[in-house]
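Re-running Type II toxin-antitoxin system VapB family antitoxin to confirm reproducibility after the cluster update. Everything else is unchanged from the original entry.
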Amino acid sequence: MIFKSVGEARPYPDHGHVTPKDWADVAPRQVRLDELVTVKSTLDLAALLAEDSTFFGDLFPHVVQWRGTQYLEDGLHRAVRTALHQRSVMHARVLVLKD
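Result of re-run:
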């Protein structure tokens, strides 16, 4: 199993981080793929295969940690690419939300 589980929606409250500039203040750190819950159940194959997949966005995936669970909000294609390279850890920006 690549991820802890696959979800279809964001179970956490709105955090106000929308643009890459909003996320820029969140320092990247390593996360394990098998500890992530995705918030999307489908993957855009074009994004996965694109050589310039980070050209218009953030270099790091976006993860929201809420109530002890880490949710992969953006960057599913990067996480799958990491798994395809047989790596279990990637760098991501992790926003920790408090209850």
